[in-house]
Amino acid sequence: GMLAQFGLIFFMFLIGLELDHSMIRGSGHTAVLISHYSIVVPLVFGLAAAVIVYPLVGSGDFTGFALFMGASMAITAFPVLARILTDTGLHKTRIGALAITCAAVDDVTAWCILAVVVAIVKATGFFDAVQTVALALLFVTAMLTLVRPTAARVIAVHEHRGRLAPVVMSMLIVGLFLSAWATEAIGIHAIFGAFMFGAILPRSRSLTSQISERLEDMTVLFLLPVFFAVVGLSTQVGLVAGGEMWLVTGLIIAIAIAGKLGGSVIAGLAAGESWRSSTVLGVLMNTRGITEIVILTIGRSLGVISPALFTVMVLMALITTFMTTPLLARLYPRSQIDADVAAAEADATARGGKSPVTPMPEVEPLHATRSSGIGRVMVGVTDPISAQPLLHLATWMRRSNGEAPDVLLATVVPPPGYEQVRANLSDLDDRAAVVAESLAPLRQQLADAGVTAEVVAVVGTDPSEELWRLAVQREAGTLLIGSHEAYLGFRPLGGVAGQLLRHAPCDVAVLVGMDASRYAVTDPVGVWFRGEGPDAAALHFAAAIARGTGERLRVISPVAVEVPSVGLDVDEVVLREPTVAAALEAVGGTSLMVVAPPGTVEGVLPALREAVIERAWVPVLVVRGAAAGIAPELGHYRAAL
Fold first, then answer.
1. In the chain, what is the straight-line distance between the N-terminal and C-terminal CA atoms, in Å?
2. Is residue 264 a contact partner of residue 34, using CB atoms and an 8 Å limit?
3. pTM
4. CB 470 within 8 Å of CB 479
């Protein structure tokens, strides 16, 4: 219990710290209208629901019960909404910016309403309630007029020194607990003081990031799991038994969705938004997540919510959160999101103004060319050092006419911090731009080698999805990435590499063995070839690299096969016997080995192919051509985007 309470205090402090003041101050008429409607309508719906369900699952005084039902229906999970916007790419759109602004205003308003409700519930009479509210207002005034200026002077010293000193961090933690204690003593919950202390701190990107870095690990990895464990133990699904209770559950879920989603849709239409935009806003504002569970925990601790109703409301919070992403995928597909972002950027560029979202940094667009056999090569970059072997390969590749393909250096930037407390999305595009700028030396390195290249950085939580989406958007013919080993065991084609090999709608080449010191091509370029269809892509890649290095091409086969002409001199090697030892011996005389991935080639000797990939002493390039089971589905993947 105590650790769970500490978890809530630190969690609410971080939520307040992440609150973007500029969103509150700069919220326009539309944002204020939608946020207030999305508070008032579900609040009224919750009061109405209380009248119906109180005789069945009510607990304590009806007034407190009804007010708490209304407040719990009105909340939006700010951090969860931010994560959904990031995952779907909506944070780059106008509707996403409007949603996060509405949620910010909604968040502050809802917590203020909840504080008043808690004060009324804990009061013993009318004058006691008035006194509690008055003390709460006095607390807020003191925080704004006394604590905030003091914190600003402390932060100014921090800004001058450029780092968060331990003594400053200690002062902030002491201030956090004093603020939480004050609101608990006043008669409202301690989490309101924690939220208020985080919200009133002057905004400094450096300060915010340093505080978050020091507190997020402890909060998200230790304290919040303890809180969720307590909630799980308090959630007794067995209490939702019988037709009557399931009817109550369905009714509460329906009322919650109708109030929050419906109220936001009506407000959006009243503000001049289209039906689709209004519905998307409603779906986003209907997200409740962990914030709802925090409120329910307060209600349960006050005795306002019975154990049965607590379980029903937890189910409501989970369902309204889980339904958000599937509904968004139907209402606003990713292909439409990308098209709207591109159109907004193009329009801003044409008008000579600033785009509503920061465009991906790039040079003059390159045009993929597939007619000569190799299109644009997209290189997945995690960091400049590990990218060196991939850059070597990119500079060696040559089309059949001797030209070097264009190269796109792509990197996926994870959002900073943990999604449980991440609510400020204002710096995501700036973060991507900084990372893209850090890759400029790699672009220059390719330019010095005579290869035209550009750099693009995108923010995302799923590297494989973002990379194959970029491959489609930028019409890449080949995606070149490094292998990703599993935490346990050796699986060079696991993780991101494995997902891209299975799903990317273009040729995929995975480099196994990322030691840059091993990449000096002085021996023939080898390719494992049995004559099956997928082996053709491996032969094609090996020939492209051999053209660029000037070395001979060595075709290694477990059995005698006819090798198609690739316009190069070819050394054909047939294994003396179909054994792993013979295969590794033949491979050892090459500088680089190219092979199709296991599972794409039917045959009786799959162990030899796997042995080459996992045990060869030379770098191995695992190549899966787009024709290997992926080309027929390309239309499906484009539609899914």
1. 45
2. yes
3. 0.72
4. no
| Cβ-based neighbours of 358, under 8 Å, separated by 6 or more | 429, 430, 432, 433
Residues 26-64: tens digit of each pLDDT: 556 777 788 888 889 999 999 999 999 999 888 878 988
Architecture of domain 520-618: 3-Layer(aba) Sandwich (3.40)
Instruction: Give the single-character DSSP code of 302.
Output: T
SS3 636: helix
**Can you spell out the DSSP letters for 308-371?**
HHHHHHHHHHHHHHHTHHHHHHHHS-HHHHHHHHHHHHHHHHHHTS--SSPPPP-SSPP----T
Cβ–Cβ < 8 Å for 445, 391: yes
Other C-beta atoms within 10 Å of 573: how many? 17
**Shared fold status for 373-512+626-641 and 520-618:** yes
Residues in the chain: 641
CATH homologous superfamily of 373-512+626-641: HUPs (3.40.50.620)
> Torsion over CA of 389, 395, 397 and 401, rounded to 10 degrees?
180
Q: Are 523 and 589 in contact (CB under 8 A)?
A: yes
Architecture of domain 2-335: Up-down Bundle (1.20)
Query: Are 571 and 557 within 8 A, CB to CB?
Result: no
* Residues in contact with 506: Cβ distance below 8 Å, sequence separation at least 6, in sequence order: 375, 378, 468, 471, 472, 476, 477, 478, 479, 626
Which H helix or E strand runs over 446?
Answer: helix 440-448
Secondary structure class of 374 (helix, strand, coil):
coil
How many Å separate Cα 24 from the centre of its chain?
24
Spatial separation of the C-alpha atoms in residues 2 and 634, rounded to whole Å: 54
> Above 50 in pLDDT, residue 630?
no
Q: Which residue has the tokens 């080898």?
A: 526
Q: How far apart are CA 338 and CA 345, in angstroms?
A: 11
Beta partners for residue 622, in sequence order: 510, 595
Can you tell me whether residue 578 is helix, strand or coil? coil
- Selection from 117, 112, 116 nearest residue 66 by Cα: 117
Residue that wins the pLDDT comparison between 487 and 626: 626
Q: Kindly indicate the confidence band of residue 107, based on its pLDDT and cuts at 50, 70 and 90.
A: confident
User: Is residue 189 classed as helix, strand or coil in its secondary structure?
Assistant: coil
DSSP letter, residue 425 = -
What are 324's two structure tokens?
Answer: 């958000």
**Is residue 631's pLDDT more than 50?**
no
Token pair listed for 273: 């938004």
Per-domain residue ranges of the chain: 2-335, 373-512+626-641, 520-618
The amino acid occupying position 222 is F
Supply the angle between the helices 190-200 and 126-142 in degrees, to the nearest 10. 30
